[in-house]
Amino acid sequence: MLPVGQDRDDDPSQPERGRWWSLALSAPFVALCIAGVLLLSLDAARHIEALATANSDSSQWSLAQLEVEFGSHQRALVTGAPPDLEAVRLTFDIFYSRFETISKGRLYADITTSEAAADFRAVTSFLAGSVPLIDGDDDTLRAGLPAMAARAEAIRPALRSISLNGVRIFSAQADGQRFSVLRALIRITALTAALVLALAIGVVALWRLMQVARQEARRRARANHRLRAIVSTALDGIVVTDGEGLILEFNAAAQRIFHCKREDVLGRMAERLLFPDSVANHSPDADHAAQMGRRRVAAIRADGAHFPAELSVTLSEEGGNVLRVYYLRDITRQVADERELVAARDQAVAGERAKARFLAVMSHEMRTPLNGLIGTLELLNDTPLSPEQQNFLRIVRRSGDVLLTHVNDVLDISRLETGRFTFAEDAYDPVAVMRDVAETLRPTAVAGGIGLTADSTAAEGLHVLGDAPRVRQVLVNLAGNAIKFTPAGEVRLHVRHDPDAGKLILSVSDTGIGILPDQVERIFEDFVTLDSSYMRAAEGTGLGLGIARRLVEGMGGHVAVDSAPGRGTTFTVTLPVRPAIRPRPPPEAEPVAPLPGRKVLLVEDNAINRLVATSMLVKLGQEVTEAFDGAEGLERAEQRRYDLILMDISMPRLDGVETTRRIRAGSGPNRSTPIVALTAHALPEDIARFREAGMQHSLTKPITRRALAMALADVATVITPPDPVADAPPVIDRETLDAAASSLGPEVFRTLRGRFFDEMETGLTRLEERLKSGGAREEYAGDIHKLAGSAAVFGATALHAALKAQETRAKRAEEDRLLPGHTALLPIWAQTRKALSAI
């Protein structure tokens, strides 16, 4: 492991290891070259000795003399009268001795075994036959001379052949020996050259190693200098200790952090001096700390003051020597900043809660008088009025509606910011939505002398899945804004569909005053009106466009703006949509008719609202008992049974939620009586809290007579359940289904039907699992609502009715009826699927 602050190039052991490797690799090569030179020298010496030996024996001369001496012997046999027997014996002995030397000498072994072997046998036979005569007496020799002469003449060609063959063999051997000596000398020369080259390379390598050693020495010096500079100038404190925990290095930053000098701490134990929690202890804990990265510890200064520090430990070991390097940073300011951030976050959370509470209170405080105002106006409208009074009444009602719109805008902003805004996914006609917006805003446009047109030719007959009320709200905000800022000219609404991209494009264009480029983004900010002076022509809170963009983004789309001063403005809304089957048109609204008389307990603390609600209920044919707060309402609920209880929420002494809980928990006659909340708290979590307390419905103030009548009619189904046999709807509404099939075409209809089957199967299974696991009833009701919308699109009347009934049970928190109701859905779904599959 390398020491801290040192990279691999700065490792001082690197050049030493390089020199040892060079020596280790070159030594065997040099030794091999020397051994080769020695072996080749010995071989060359052997060959040279062989050549010398051949010359001393006079091999070739002996062969030549054999033939010469045989000629002398042959001449002695035939010369003289009488013949000289001593000369015969002398020449024979010389020839015999020469032949014996050649036939038995080791240098002549190649000759005796060569092609001349037969010649050697002939000469040997001649000598063997002549020896008795030569060794006998003179008379015997003299008598045998003629025969010897004749045999001698017969072997002369054999001797000639032996001599020539020997000369040829010895010449070849001499040539081979010369070549062997030459090759040995060449190898000696080559090896000598290689040895010289190796020695030269060794010299160069040693010189290079010397240069590298000098460079490494300089590099180490530079590295040490850099390391000292880094350590001394580092902003973090650096403390180096040995394996025993004794301080070896203490940089300037550490001196500033710990308020002590380097010379005062060198050689002292780091754990006792700097770290009270023993993070510097040379123990397994310290080694474990080295693997934890950065961590926070408590350190101590020279004056004994403790401070928070961020510490990391690095271990380095080489040759059995252990070094620990501690990097630390004083994070006193950081910890203080974090505490401030936590405090700021807590304050922000508290501010958000206060904001939500403020909105809830303001909603209640503003809706309560609005309820009295709008309700009284509605009652006043039923009285005989002169035309002038009716005009005044319309003005007051319009002002009340505007004020209610502002209250709703503020609540929408709050819900959109907190992510508690939910979007439906039902089939709707975007062209119808656009035309409805145009018809709604046309009186305002006409009053301002502005034209308002709607172009829908590119999307006629289109039906998509989405949240139609929210799309309508977006268009109302955009078109209303365009009308306000168009002094003269035209406002144009346009809708088209891009089926390839699955997009619905809505645009609102005007010929108004336009927007400066640097103000385009500001118009979507809350409470921004661009012209905030008292003389501005357009009124408003500056919330409409911000709400519109939040709604569009919540539905997965985006809003684009194209504008220039004096040229007008175009807002383009792009929404992702899926095609849907044309839904069955809803029945036209019928006038509100008086309901059968029921005994109603009205619990309301505000006298005006109590008067308005009582008057509306009486006009609807109901018998009303009043209670001015929750405590009185609880007392009256204990005295007699009522068919319905209308419960205000915010009341003195006992609020509506607690009153409802006590009614449900008691044993009085109204324990199971339907209770409807009358509330100005319109946030979803408030509605959920009301249902959890035992309320079946919620009416948000201001309350109109129609809304009150619809709630009474809905609750009446609980009071008097319908006959399930007589009122059972058909399984399939063929009129709706046939209209859908003809508008979509067979192929698209079959595709959507398959998706509907998959969605319903998966949805019912998931809902059953959620119901058995005790999931949130609000989520269960929301999923049921989506399935009911899909069933209505396909004309599945019976399934739609069953799903809506189950949704009502979930919203009313009727726990004991949810699982049986869900089980009852399955056979209805089986009948519906069978009927749809047969089409």
What this model shows, in words?
This protein is α/β, with parallel strands linked by helices and 839 residues long. The protein is built from 25 helices and 18 strands. It has a five-stranded antiparallel β-sheet with strand order 2-1-5-4-3. Helix 21 (734-744) crosses helix 22 (746-772), helix 22 (746-772) packs antiparallel against helix 23 (777-793) and helix 22 (746-772) runs antiparallel to helix 25 (815-837).
Keywords for this entry:
5-stranded antiparallel beta sheet; 60% helix; alpha/beta; 5-stranded mixed beta sheet; 25 helices; 839 residues; disordered N terminus
Q: Strands of the biggest beta sheet: in what spatial order?
A: 2-1-5-4-3
Helical residues, percent: 55-70%
Shape: elongated
Question: Roughly what fraction of the amino acids lie in strands?
Answer: 5-15%
- Report the major sheet: 5 strands, antiparallel
Taking the alpha carbons of the first and last residues, their distance comes to 79 Å
Gyration radius, rounded = 60 Å
Q: Please report the number of helical segments.
A: 25
Q: What average pLDDT do the residues reach?
A: 76
Q: Give the beta-strand count.
A: 18
The low-confidence runs, each spanning 5 or more residues with pLDDT under 50, are 1-15, 278-284, 531-540, 588-593, 718-727
Q: What structural class should be given to the helix and strand makeup?
A: alpha/beta
